[in-house]
Fold:
Amino acid sequence: MVIGLVNSVSAQISAGHMTIKASKHGALSVRTSLEASFLRSAKLRVYDGKQKKQVNLRPVKAVEQGESIDVFYKTEHPLDLQLNLKPVGRCIVWQMTCRNTGADQLWLELGPEPRVESSEVLTVFTGWDDVVNPKKLLSPEEQKYPHWSMRFPVTAVWNKRATLGVGLEPGELVSYYTHSYQPLNLHSGLLVCTSRIVVDAGKEEAVRFVTCAAPGEWGKYEMMEAYYESFPSYFVPYPGVDPRINLGDSMQNAWPGSEWRQESCRRTYCGWAWCYAPFRRTGDILCRPELWEYNFYRKPERHYALSRDKFLDWRREAFANCKKDGVADLFYVDVVWCEDALARERYPDALITGPDAGILKGATSGCDLERNVFPLNTTFGKQYEEDTRAIVEEFDPVGFALDCAGNAWRYTGPALATLPGRAWDDKVGVYCSSYIGVAKYMDFVHTLKRKDGSLTAIVPNPETGGPFAVYFRGDAAMLEGTPWSVERTHADRIRWKLGQKPLVWHCTYRLDELFDESTLTAEQLKLIYRGLADFTLLQSLRLGGIPNPWMAGGNKKLMTWLPAIVECVKTGWQPVPAARVPEPMWSSRYGRGLKTLIAVAHETASPVQGTVTVQNARISDGIVLFSHYDGKALTNTIADSQTLVSLEIPVRTPILLRAQMEILSPDVIVKAEVSEDMGIAGGKLTALIEGNGSTKVRIRIPEDMRIDAVIWNGKKIDPVDGSDSSEFLLTNNRQGELEVQYRSQLFALDDQDLLEYPFVVDGKPNCTLVVGSGATEMEHLMAYRLQEYFRYWYGVEVEPTTKVVLPIVETDRPVDGATVNFRIDPELSSATISRQGDILTIAAPDEKQLEYATLATLRALDRKYWTLGRLAGFPIIKKLGLEKTVLE
Structure:
């Protein structure tokens, strides 16, 4: 960023590719270094909603304030306006502060209005769709775009060289905003984002907008990249929440759970459970005794029909089972619906009234009539926060599953005057959008601490759309629908608002919506399942969505790809692919530098050949060399500082590239064939490199590994900057061979020492799981995890099934035969898995590292005891006799 005086008569600030100048009298000009004529001027738009006319603004002066500029305006209205311009990352924040100097409430609509000029055809991003020619944009009255609240909060316009973005600062909470592009002529127009605000007499209100300029090649994704990089905290999970939020959704495999929940969840990379409706009466999550009995809309069924005491016992056991089996428990909450009588009698000030009032019949627990309510600064909202805090104290959940988070109802009740972000319209007058109450509740959840010191997480279900603030404040999100819900690109709009956060598909394949199930044969159903799973695979890698067990189980291809999908999601989706591909191929990128993963695929009926051109300057400070994700050799050609990879993409099967090395001198290497062979305890990276000259190379170090040796043309070489460095100097004469040897920092044994360990022999337990005398709960729990591993394997996967339960004993004395020891020893510097004879030891200095080491052991054992699962046991599956089917 740059700020300074220009010719002593104006102030100037810069961020990214945008520069704004303010004359001493406050006139603004905007430029971008990407194309001199693309941006010209900028002004503020203010509209008086009561008088139905534009407010004339007269800039009075501009003043530098540290790293920002303040511009002051006068009007003919009882309104003083101050604009603060401040660089933040690659964006410039425009904070517009309006002070009402009159006696009456002001209704305003305001925002920045930069002007764009281009000799080329422009494309406009409306926050929902792209319009290739702005002349084809419909008037606001004619537009059929979804409700404003579902759109991305920044609009954009671009040509081949430059992109302009205008929108809301991501932390802003407003009850109404809109985007528009207004053509002035064939080659110029105004890109506008405005928000409506209400300013009481003698008070002031502020709204923060952003502008940015970015390259033009990737269009709206260039704007998103600048936006994410400028405000990164809104696009990654909240710091301090449980990392299992980065994994998949267990559906009903963990809540209320099945006999095999640990392994059915772990093997399908499920990290958390949507612990659905652990209460009977919506709005009473504590299940208070005085509120337990009421007039039901529908007779309670299943556990909801239990007495209160038995129901509380049931939910305590259900939460305990989640914790025991390693699944993060998300307590289900719904802060915008409340049982009818409870809402009317206890929380009347929270009711949504008027045209947005709603009623649900038999929705949450199945036995309620529910009314929509507002959850901020109302009696309902205050009680719900107190109850949420009480739930954390009682159950210590990992977090909360927030349902019905996609609404934007207008609240006009008694608490309105106390609420932030109020807006106005001609139908209800002044109101506050319900999503603001939801967003504030999400902020509250992130203040609550668990017993281990971590913060509680929150995962919303914004349904098929949802306001941006809900996504920006959530730690992950679900799409309660298939990967093709609404249309192929509908989930894109969710991904844009999530940034790098996890997305999960929370749904079955919903065959009944696609086919008449009564007419399907077994062979037809298998063909359909393969096709839907193949599309789910492509969509998951294109957008970073994790398939759930009901989608992946029993499908060989999808189950095989599941670890790669999860790694991509954990690495973080990036808006700019930085990998050019020819049509009909598409590319999607995760991470940058040596964490880069690039997915490439197509959706046509024949194999497609093409070259992937990786724009190294967008992802690294060097030249990135790739292998296939599974380590297979890949030839990289270097041209114009770009990495070129020629591929043949199969039908309905993606290819995933993994970054392995960075070459820090771009003109030295012309070609390299890179491959990797990784095991449990170690592995090897090999690169056959063509070129001349000397260069530093930076080498990827896989998780839990260290570089054991680097051999260049048969000779061992040392790191450039100390033993822990991953940079090495290579001097090449036409062709050289690089070999990097890795060694595990966790497994102090050979692969076969673990894989051939005699846990079970002839279908009977052959080892004892040992914890020391006075062992901690965690040591017992980790022994249980290994016990469950083999109970599942022999009870589900091996035919005929048999009951195998490895014994767990607590003793300090030697145990005869093979033993697996679980031990916490504070004297250790790190966790380790080792074997001496028939004694396998998993040891760590603390509980968290013991858990990590044990789970790593189970994941390593999956190399031998791997399963593809089974098709989910839906009625159609059972009817056609496909319960134990695995689709190859």
In short: The chain is about 20% helix and 35% strand. The two ends are 55 Å apart (CA to CA). Residues 31 and 646 are 39 Å apart (CA to CA).
